[in-house]
Amino acid sequence: MRFAPRLGGMVASAVGYRSGGQPPALHRGLPSPWLTLIFSLDGPVTSGLTLEQARGADAVRTDIVVGGLHRSPAYIIQPEHETGVQLALHPLAARRLLGLPAGALTDQLVVSGTEVLGARAAEIHERMREQPGWEERFALLGSYLRARAAAADEATPVRREVVEAWAWLARHRGAGTLRGLPEHVALSPRRLTALFRAETGLSPKQAARLMRFEHAKSTVARSFAAGAPADLARVAADCGYYDHSHLVRDFRQYTGVSPTVWLAEECRNIQAGGHRNGEE
């Protein structure tokens, strides 16, 4: 189930998921221009930086997941039964919703939500598990996030130059040259990169590549979900890549596999609409 949260653009999407009767599977949590917040209601999410870690004793296991911007996949073990809510958060809303800039989340691929959000998040998690349906769960979570945002109104705001730089990149979906961006926000290239990285954890160029990849990945997934073969050459041209091989190289960097292999692995999630992170 999808929910359109009324949080002033701070939350791009919220998805309630439930599955059962499927054999355990590997899921690659792909890099994207959104932060991830998951409240798992049917046991902890098990993940790792590598497949070996995700399947081993040192896997990260947490009921509340916070994920920053990253440039390599997280490996997640999908159990036979799983239920939860996953949100895509705008990186520049991290100060208001999470209490810290997104740049503070880059040292770890996945962080326990209670470490970031505190004990109140654990209380909300338990209350969500007690709710009879999705509408009640979303209402509870939305109220919690609105309260956090309201309480943070006096916190240090994101610099307007970074806000405009992110908006400029998003308007172009990461495509095209970045030569005019520093002038657009009236900063030197070095100063813009320093401010942008401190706020998001990425440079403007790295963020642009993520946005371009997200656009291409979503286009490929939509074609697959509609039953049409993905025309990678056309997708590459439409999304601002030099050519088909350029798109494939980005896919391999961000997913660890080719587009064809990724589609085969993610068939279950794509058909369920799980590829629509940040899309309503």
UniProtKB/TrEMBL annotation:
Matching SMART domains: HTH_ARAC
A GO molecular-function annotation: DNA-binding transcription factor activity
Source organism per UniProt: Streptomyces botrytidirepellens
SUPFAM superfamilies cross-referenced by the UniProt entry: Homeodomain-like
Name of the protein described by the UniProt record: AraC family transcriptional regulator
HTH araC/xylS-type domain mapped to chain residues: 177-265
PANTHER family (UniProt xref): BLL1074 PROTEIN, HTH-TYPE TRANSCRIPTIONAL ACTIVATOR RHAS-RELATED
Membrane-spanning residues: none
Top-level division of the source organism's lineage: Bacteria
The entry's keywords: DNA-binding, Transcription, Transcription regulation
Family annotation (Pfam families): HTH_18
InterPro entries referenced in this protein's UniProt entry, alphabetically: AraC_XylS_family_regulators (IPR050204), Homeodomain-like_sf (IPR009057), HTH_AraC (IPR018060)
